[in-house]
Amino acid sequence: MRRKFLLLLETGLVLAGLLLGASAWKIHSALQQPLNITQEELLDVPNGTTPTGTLKRLEADGLIRDAFWLRIYWRFNLADQPLHSGEYRMVPGMTMEGLIGVWKRGEVVQYSVTLVEGWNFRQVRAALAKDEKLQQTLTDLSDSQVMERIGHPGIFPEGRFFPDTYRFVRGTSDVDLLKKAYDRLEDVLAKEWAQRSADVPYTQPYQALIMASLVEKETGVPQERGQIAGVFVRRMRLGMLLQTDPTVIYGLGERYTGKLTRAHLKEENPYNTYLVPGLPPTPIAMVGREAIHAALNPTSGNSLYFVARGDGSHVFSDDLESHNNAVREFQLKRRADYRSSPAPATPDEQAPIPAASPDTAPEDVPQVPPQQPAPEPDASEPPSSQ
Q: Are residues 134 and 205 in the same domain?
């Protein structure tokens, strides 16, 4: 009886060993199998997908075999390993072990979208809406509803997002990206505000953001940003109108067709700085860190005017007579390739974006607290060409 028991035990151990060996071989074979693909493919793993479900799908699609043994391997070796959602790149010659390694490292395919300095909010929304890799959730919402969706109800959206290249994975929503851009702007503005010059005429960071948007739209020449800001700050202190064309263009919205007329400069709206003293009520564009820094640290000097040369740079003048001479030289005798700002670095990417527009009725535009100092403008001063 004892001999039979020992024999059965020995037989059981042998069979168990054989079974374990066979299982180990099947698992090894399943791991070493190459993916059945002839060209690069992307594996989409939606949020909430399990490893078991993904392996079954790969087998059903004919990309692998022996998904059962791969599930056994995952259960006993990677039970605590999460499978991150996103897209994973599969290339010819990659084994299943290699793909699992990519899963373990979370090497999801990343995409990017660039928000450009000087864009308005309509352009931002257009850029996000045409990105097929972003999850679109804001398509039919108004601007105010968008701000509610990202957690900032009642905030006017213009200029509230930081221009940069943002990387994301498939499944990221447009809301997620806007939240990141909003928080980034808040962080940059707070840090620059903490290092502002002592004599800038702003009582709150939002006013500096408005000024930065004027600087951003007036010049793309790095060394001129501080000079432009200096001109505007000095004009504010003297009670002079800012008289900057980009604010008028912004106020015109889609009615602006590329040419600013005298009639436009006489048209009353909150953004017409030829008529309204002080800063406009809101930013008119997204701004980079350099423009914010310039607005908070304007270059000292005596210049009160500037005019575009036609090559993207400007001539600065201390008095009206010198300014008028510069206007005659550079504005009235414009060259064929005249530009008021430098040519964009990537015109092909920026061309399809819609024209600037506040998309807001004047009575709905938020008001800015008065700047300090803010004396009444000199009504006798003739308009300047900037």
A: yes
